[in-house]
Every structure is written in C-alpha cells, then in structure tokens.
Write a structure and sequence with these properties.
The structure is a homodimer. Chain A is α/β, with parallel strands linked by helices. Chain A folds into 2 domains: about 15-30 and about 115-240, HAD superfamily/HAD-like (Rossmann fold, 3-Layer(aba) Sandwich); about 30-110, Orthogonal Bundle (DNA polymerase, domain 1), CATH 1.10.150. Helix content of chain A is about 45%, strand content about 10%. Chain A has a 6-stranded parallel β-sheet, with helices on both faces. In chain A, strand 2, helix 7 and strand 3 form a beta-alpha-beta unit. The longest helix of chain A is centred in the first third of the chain and has 16 residues, at about 30-45. Chain A starts with 16 loop residues before the first strand and ends with a helix. The interface of A and B includes residues 79, 133 and 156 of A.
C-alpha cells in the first residue's frame, strides 16, 4: 500500500510514524513573509520589491545554516539566523533604519504562517493511523507558535535545535527516530524538497515527496521530486489517501 | 490574577507558558497500571496483590532515577528504568517466569494511562490563553503514546530525555524555558508534587500545586502542597478558572 507507481524500491515495512518538513511542505512561508513585509512597509513608509526581499531572505537560509553545519560559527537557532540575514537585507534594500521592534516583528512572521489548504485535514486523517510529528530546522519556540497559529494536529515537534544539527545532517533524522524509539525503516519523512528526502533515505527512512509547485511563487523554481523517492503525492490529503488513512 | 489566597510571594508577571508534570498530575498512573497487571494476571494465571505491586513499581522510580542523576549509571530512559524495576518485582512477587512479550506489554502500560476527569477540558481552556506543554520524566516515545491515548491537547512535549537529566535537576526546568525562549519567571510549573514545584521555584519558575489526593489510592500517601508554592488548585479546570482562562 505504501508503494506508488513511482516507487523505485520496495517498502515492505509499513511506517509507524511520519515526520513532516514544515516550511514549504506544511506552511506557505513565502505568502506569509511577503504579507508581513508589506505590513512593515505600510507602517514605515519604506517601499521595495517585497516578494524579491522574501525570496532573498529564504535564500540566505541555506548558506547561514551551512556556516553552523561546517562549525564556522557556534550553534544558532533559526530565529537568530533569520535576524542576522534580515539585518543584511534591510541594509541592502535601503531600509537599514528599521528599529529593533520592527525587526523582531519581522522575524516573528516566520512563527505565524498559513498552512496549505490540504494540510490540516490531511494530518487529521493521517493521525488516526500514524504518529505524526514535525522534523524542521525551525526552533522549538517558533514551531510551537506555528503549531498554534496554523492549528497543526501534530503529536510532537522535532527540531534541529534538539540535536544541535541542521537538516540534512544525519543526526536530525536519526535523532528523531531514536526519540520515537523506532528503527529508521519504520519512519517516513514527508517533504517538498528532494535534498531533504534523499538525506533521510540515506539514513534508512522511507520517503514521500509532496508537490508544492507554488512554494517559490508563480514563475519561481519548482522541485519536481526524484524517482529515488518512495512515494509522490500532490498534498497531505492525497498522501493520506495513498497510505490508506 | 495569578496570586491566590495561599500565595506567599508576589507574581507580578503573568506567565506565558505552563509546563505540566504528567504522572499523577495529568494522568492516573496507579489505576492504569493496576488494570494492566490484572489483565496480565488473567492471562497468565499468576495471583498477587497487584495494587501493592503497582505501588512498589512506582516506588522504585525515584531510586532508579537517582542512580542516573548521581551518574552511577549512564543515561537510561524511563522505559528502560521501568523494565529493570519490573524484572526485580516480578521475581519478588513470584512471577519471574513471565516472558519477554508480557514484560514489554506491562512496560507499555505506562504509555496508555487515563487522564483525571478535569484534565482534557482544563487544558483546552488554558490553551486558549497560554502555551501548554508537558515537562515529564517520561521519555518522548512514551509521552507521544500517552498524548494520543489520553487526547491531551498539549502544544509540546518536553522530556527529561531531551536534557539528559531527570527532574528535579535544574537542567530540566531551565532547559524547557530555554527551548520556549522564555525567562523562567514567564513560565509556570504545574504539578501534584511539592518537591518538583520547589525545585522549579528555585530555578525562578512560577508554581501551581494541583491536589490529587487519590494519586496513591484510598488510604495512600497524600501530598498537600506547600505554602511556598504560588497557587493551589483542585484540578486543571480549577486552575484555568484561577488563571482567568
């Protein structure tokens, strides 16, 4: 039942727990961040291409985590990385005068994002049959706010912060499996990002790709998945259907 | 509003998050464990005083954690501690023949306990106004099962396992506050056990005592709280009332 038409390896083991990537997979970070930037613009009278700003902010995320992952800087959680990249971007976009309270409010925009329309219902269905948890690079305080704001019915929040490692480091996938007290083959990572999925697969987890063609907006980059991933679905509700939940 | 008649210190700060002890405070461990032992007895034909067995099992918990806390043994999660003390008790109660599957089932009884009647409704009320999370010595896999079984509406599960320290070590209270990104004075520990509350208070947390006179059964030991604790309530629903939620 776990094996779809696109599966390239056999999944004879039914998963016990599903781990969900959050930004992009469960919530629309881009829409929410652009909205917060426009509210900031209305308050401060600063004008800029806020969609480009949001994209640049998200683009800074990988390199800033990589500096932590390579040990060039000590552990910093995602709020701290967002605050640092925001400071650079405000300068670059001619908004370097923005005060501390405005900056804090913008960093908090990542705590209050909307779920994609298929998410809450899909998770409710899956939760009847599987343990459902997040596995996100977002810090715990951020994920708690997001869970409350988006009403995500998750049994547990797993964060890079608990392991002192960011995805795609193996410590994150294997750390979550250890806390679940499950062998990796009993756990499935669900994500809209092929890199995340292949890293989890290398740790022995099952994998499901969720198509989110609008994650980066109309005309933006699209991740179309990989034949190596066990399962592809168009949303969380479609995944529930595929998994018989 | 946070200061009740029994409060001995002033709580000028309103808490942002409430951390709940689990065994005894939210769930009736004794009733559930006795029930599982009686089912085990019916299956195996072994007879014993199962209420006394449950009490002895719970009594083994403190000393077994203390061995971990003093560093006499390496980290072991609560499932492992329960399994070890169960083995000793089965021997002592003349049930040393019990097989591995029966033992595993009994250890799992701690994953499927019933909440006290005031808990689910009380947490729902509190959750509208506060972040609500557990802070338990139970390992994450155990707490996930418990959360699902008892339908506890908690925003996050914090466990001793995340900090490599058992309560009442300060690392647990301060570790949860750090992950919440809140100063200890913005966090309130809610528990039915005075020792837990005083340890949290020493770390700067606010404290609320919940009376659970039947935690140890009819005629059992009763914790009646301490004048040093900020707030006393007869249940989680009564706590919600007191906190204006």
């Amino acid at each position: 039942m776990l094996v779809g038409e696109t599966a390239k390896r056999s999944c004879s083991t039914v998963a016990t727990a599903l781990l969900f990537d959050v930004f992009g997979t469960l919530v629309d970070w881009r829409g929410g961040v652009i909205e917060a930037l426009r509210t900031f613009a209305a308050r401060t009278g600063i004008s800029a291409d806020w969609a480009a700003f949001a994209d640049d902010w998200r683009a800074a995320y990988g390199p800033s985590m990589d500096r932590v992952r390579r040990g060039e800087v000590g552990w910093q959680n995602l709020d701290a990385l967002h605050a640092a990249s925001l400071a650079e971007l405000l300068e670059r976009y001619g908004a370097g005068d923005a005060g501390g309270e405005e900056r804090a409010r913008l960093v908090k925009a990542w705590h209050a994002l909307r779920p994609w329309p298929d998410v809450v219902g899909g998770l409710e269905r899956l939760r009847r049959r599987f343990i459902v948890a997040s596995l996100s690079n977002g810090n715990i305080a951020l994920q708690i706010d997001l869970r409350r704001h988006a009403e995500l019915p998750l049994d547990m929040l797993f964060s890079a912060e608990l392991f002192g490692h960011y995805k795609p480091d193996p410590q994150t996938y294997l750390g979550a499996c250890a806390l679940l007290d499950l062998r990796p083959e009993r756990v499935m990572l669900v994500a809209a990002h092929t890199g995340d999925l292949l890293a989890a697969q290398a740790c022995g987890l099952q994998t499901a790709f969720i198509a989110r063609p609008l994650e980066h907006g109309v005309g933006g980059a699209v991740d179309t998945g990989s034949a190596a991933v066990d399962l592809h679905a168009d949303g969380i509700d479609a995944l529930a259907q595929r998994l018989g939940a």
